[in-house]
Design a protein that fits this description.
The complex is a heterodimer of chains A (about 625) and B (about 210). Chain A is an alpha/beta fold and about 625 residues long. Chain A contains 20 helices and 19 strands. Chain A starts with a helix and ends in a 31-residue tail after the last helix. Chain B folds into two domains: about 100 residues, Alpha-Beta Plaits, CATH 3.30.70.580; about 100 residues, Alpha-Beta Plaits, CATH 3.30.70. By secondary structure, chain B is of the alpha+beta class. Classes of the chains: A alpha/beta (about 625), B alpha+beta (about 210). At the A-B interface, α9 of A face α1 of B.
């Protein structure tokens, strides 16, 4: 039995309970009474995957259906992978410990481009043919994927049967229903895929032919066998009616985000031009305060967690945030539950909200001004002013905070050295403010600056922009280091080739499938982990396939270029993205959606304006 | 305020969770159970939950002990009825009593150990008839040699289904704890052929005076 084989070696690996299952909250079913089995695969290790909210939602959602069983699958760490390969242990699901290859669906979530090689490795560990074309006509297993990176899944087209665009709450079940009927009727894989392509939100890459221009850009994408010319993402229009679990699997080991979270809203009203999530998840939809409070309480009661987090792209943009906090604090305060709000914005971080969260536990404050000068913040439409940063820090210092983290990006469009020096200046002003605050706390001040290399992403106004090359980023980092004067400022900047590969894959086309395959073949198994990322492996694979990473990462695209993802529709129009790009170069900002509708087009799914028109 | 000692089993795949993870798991289980747990006062209040004797990762047990303080008296059967549904597969509380002994009383523990390998019974005899059984022990001052022979009490040896079944009593507690793996590792080294540890099951905890820890 596979179970015995696994157990015989579990004590040889670190954190064996990553691989043993059996946690509280896992869903067990009687196989003989289950019609369709779904292996929900997270292409990273347990500790990371078990922190992922989307998996928790979809896991419970599928398992609500008595005759469908969704189980969890994670990538093994290298110690376990070695044992699995040596002892012929195939990739298995944690609930039943059954091999993944015996499932009806093998579904991956695409959260991060650098996890792509891990997907290939997991398919290989599962014993499933890595290339879609090698899977034959038997209907199972269907290898599919969902998640944000599906907005440009082109580099993965060689490996997947289908992609699920947008939010999965409805479409996943529609897909499983169709599968069940067609399998029972004896359909083949290609028959099923042709039928699945007719479900809104389902993209079957093998039903599209891509032609390229001589310069390497995409010429056209042509659908065949009745597949739609454009596939539009799925959206849940009413968040109060949308499924949300009241329980989760509670891991034994400490995972990255070890808490329960309630999603408070989807979408974002801010329109930061670099932020892919801010466009992909439009339109803005929030849950009512009552729903949030009810769901938060249920999760705490059922899981036993002592930390509840409010999850969204920008929690303080919830129109009833104070009501939400009051309702939850009423419950959490005398139950020793910590309420955490990870995504607060500087500009609307009110004193009363701060007071409410400081009643629970003090830790560091994290801000993301993203750029060092107002000019560049206007370019990227990060509508945060220096005054707002100072005002919030002042409140925070008075409230007892002594640690401030500031996040920035480097290599943003139109960036100059003045903008880089501005990062150090801003941090210095925060330091000065601390010492100018008479009621400052006793602790030691630390202002941390962290910089990341900007990666242009599809479906953002910066999808046309070139990524700054590594040598230039290194120079900019030196400029920043030289500009930092205070010992209270700690800068963490690191440089690697990962950002470029991320940029390549984010805006890549189907030809990159061969590169991914070669990187994996050459040993790239956990490239999302810096320790396992080997740049030479990637450059060698590009060389071998006659492709140039700079073509994908560092090339400026014209507005009329056919993007590899142009046949996928995330409801935000390309016209809007172009307009926003022009405004960026003109250093003009766009107000938040709540104040003024920029006309991105995402409200088409709501059939109304996202916000009631403001009185003039 | 009332202290209770809860005796529970740890069987099956839950043996892969470490002592720290077990602690966190129990905290959450108590929260789920709705038992009126007492929290420490102070800046970071925490639930008063105490495990007098840790169990190594990979070992199972029929006699694990956890002490908890509740804000009020709760009948033992109610504690069991509320806690058990909140526990994961493999953890099962079966007795609740008032704590009598304290951690410092613990002196030894008994284990059932099943080993698989070639000709193990004879090798085990030879292993035990050595004058000394020296192991390397990490101390603050570096590696130190230690003779564990006097510390091993074998209360039963049998062979069945091609496996060697041992019942061992080893020092446990704050002073000179010896893990089963120390003995099995030393034996594996001595036997030279592969020794597979198939099962380690803790069955009893004793006080220094030999009485059962209660």
């Amino acid at each position: 039995m596979l179970k015995d084989k696994i157990e015989a070696h579990l004590l040889e690996v670190q954190r064996p309970s990553r691989y043993s299952g059996g946690e509280v909250g896992q869903v067990m079913k009687d196989k003989s009474k289950v019609d369709v089995r779904f292996a929900f695969c997270f292409p990273d290790i347990y500790d990371v995957g078990m922190s992922h909210l989307g998996m928790k939602i979809l896991y419970s959602l599928i398992n609500e259906r008595e005759n469908y069983w969704c189980e969890r699958v994670f990538a093994p760490w290298e110690d376990m992978e070695e044992i699995m390969r040596r002892e012929d242990i195939p990739l298995y699901a944690l609930e039943s410990l059954d091999p993944v290859k015996d499932f009806d669906f093998i579904g991956f979530t695409l959260q991060y481009e650098m996890s792509y090689t891990c997907i290939l490795n997991m398919l290989d560990l599962a014993g499933v043919p890595i290339l879609q074309k090698d899977r034959g006509e038997a209907i199972a297993p269907i290898v599919c994927a969902g998640g944000p990176c599906c907005c440009n899944p082109e580099p993965l087209c060689d490996f997947f049967d289908l992609f699920i665009l947008g939010e999965g709450e409805e479409v996943n079940l529609e897909l499983m229903d169709l599968y069940k009927d067609m399998r029972d009727a004896g359909s083949t894989r290609s028959e099923f895929l042709r039928a699945a392509a007719k479900i809104p939100g389902i993209y079957v890459p093998s039903l599209y032919d891509v032609a390229y221009n001589e310069d390497g850009t995409v010429c056209s994408v042509t659908p065949k066998d009745g597949a739609p010319a454009v596939v539009q993402k799925r959206v849940m229009t009413d968040m109060d009616k949308s499924y949300y679990p009241d329980n989760v699997v509670v891991p034994f080991i400490e995972v990255v985000h070890d808490r329960v979270s309630v999603e408070v809203l989807r979408g974002c009203i801010r329109g930061c031009r670099f932020c892919q999530a801010g466009f992909l998840y439009r339109p803005f939809r929030e849950k009512s305060a009552e729903t949030i409070v009810r769901q938060g309480i249920a999760l705490c009661e059922h899981s036993g967690y002592d930390e509840l987090s409010l999850s969204s792209l920008s929690t303080s943009d919830h129109s009833q945030i104070e009501g939400v906090l009051d309702g939850l604090l009423d419950y959490t305060a005398d139950r020793h539950i910590n309420l955490s709000l990870p995504s607060l914005r500087i500009d609307n971080f009110s004193e009363s909200v701060l007071e409410k969260i400081t009643t629970v536990r003090k830790s560091g404050l994290t801000f993301a001004p993203e750029a060092g000068t107002q000019r560049l913040r206007d370019v990227i439409n990060k509508n945060v002013t220096e005054d707002e940063v100072m005002r919030t820090c002042s409140i925070a210092f008075q409230g007892g905070y002594t640690q401030v983290k500031l996040y920035f990006m480097m290599g943003l469009p139109t960036e100059t050295d003045e903008d880089i020096v501005g990062i150090a200046d801003l941090a210095q002003k925060v330091v000065n403010l601390f010492y100018d605050t008479p009621e400052r706390p006793k602790g030691k001040l630390q202002v941390s600056i962290s910089t990341a290399t900007f990666v242009p992403k599809p479906f953002t106004p910066f999808e046309f922009e070139p990524q700054t090359e590594k040598a230039e980023i290194i120079r900019k980092q030196q400029v920043l280091r030289a500009a930092i004067k205070s010992k209270k400022i700690k800068a963490s900047m690191h440089i690697s080739d990962v950002s470029q590969m991320e940029a390549v894959l984010a805006r890549g086309d189907r030809r990159l499938g061969a590169v991914l395959y070669d990187v994996w073949k050459d040993g790239g198994h956990l490239d999302a982990w810096d320790d396992f990322f080997v740049a030479e492996r990637w450059y060698a694979a590009f060389e071998k396939n006659g492709l140039d990473p700079a073509f994908y990462a560092n090339r400026k695209r014209s507005y009329d270029e056919v993007m590899p993802w142009d046949h996928l529709d995330y409801m935000v129009s390309k016209k809007f993205l172009i307009h926003e790009n022009e405004k960026a170069h003109a250093e003009q900002t766009t107000p938040p959606c709540r104040d003024f509708c920029g006309g991105c087009g995402a409200n088409q799914c709501l059939g109304r304006a996202c916000f009631p028109k403001k009185e003039a | 305020m009332q202290d209770y000692r809860i005796v529970f089993e740890k069987r099956g795949r839950v043996k892969y969770i470490s002592h720290l993870d077990l602690n966190r798991c129990m905290l959450r289980a108590v929260r789920r159970s709705g038992l009126p747990a007492w929290y420490t006062e102070g800046f970071h209040p925490h639930m008063y939950l105490m495990f007098p004797l840790a169990l190594s990762l990979g070992a199972e047990s029929t006699c694990e002990v956890m002490d908890i303080r509740l804000t009020q008296e709760v009948p033992p059967e109610e504690i069991l009825a509320r806690l058990n549904p909140a526990l994961p597969e493999g953890l099962k509380a079966y007795e609740v009593r008032e704590p009598k002994n304290v951690t410092q009383d613990i002196g030894s523990a008994e284990y059932e150990v099943t080993l698989v390998g070639e000709d193990l019974a004879a090798k085990w005899d030879a292993f035990l008839s050595q004058e000394q059984i020296l192991i390397e022990k990490k101390t603050k001052k570096g590696m130190k040699e230690l003779d564990i022979k006097p510390k091993i009490t074998v209360t039963d040896v049998s062979e069945a289904d091609g496996a060697l079944h041992l019942t061992l009593r080893l020092p446990a507690g704050n002073e000179g704890n010896i893990n089963v793996s120390v003995v099995t590792d030393a034996f594996a080294k001595f036997a030279e052929t592969g020794v597979l540890v198939r099962k380690v099951l803790r069955t009893k905890i004793f006080c220094l005076d030999g009485a059962v820890f209660f």
